[in-house]
Amino acid sequence: MSRVGEKIKIAREESKMTQKQLAKKLGVAESFINELELGRKIANEQVLQRISKALNKNVNDIGMSFESEVFKEEKAPSYSSIKKDKSKDGETKDIWNQAFGDVLRNVPIYKYDLRKAIGYRELPVHSNKIEGFAQDKVMFLEIENDEMLGYRMQKGDIAFCHSIKEIENNSLCFIEYNGIRAVRYIKRLDNSKLLILSNKGTMQTETVYIKEVTPIAKLLKLEIKL
What would be an example GO MF term here (predicted)? Predict the structure, then answer.
């Protein structure tokens, strides 16, 4: 058990709170609290502040705890083995990964079928959100064709998106209509109709009923393939 984990456990028990109750109060899984207390996970400062507030006790000792863990790794016996040294470096790296596990998140990259992630991008988490959106509502989308060249978007580019349930006026959206999934620029004509625009060198427009279009995501940023 790590020093921070032990401190959390003592504070929780003094508050007469179970792991399940603390987890519910923080909005996390009970297993996360258990792993923190056992020292299998190292929480960042933001998480420790939330725990301190929930227990009304200061458990924010992350800096000292992390340094002691690294110190133990550095003082581990050496047997003049290259393989052993590599293992030690890997373990130290794991500690860093755990320490920053709640700061960075892997955001998946999908093709238009959304069936399986083809890669990931690491993005920072602020106030439990990524770019101001819930962590489970963001993704990257690989542009699959040149139908939006007029909007400086071509095959192979990567777009950052957040999921939507309703079409937003004057926005680039990933939608499904007429049996296809596509990225289109959307304009509302009235309460029942949309103007859908694409541009592969020349502007193409379609007028469709809103009920015929399923919104999937709104595009926010674009990584251009050079």
Answer: DNA binding
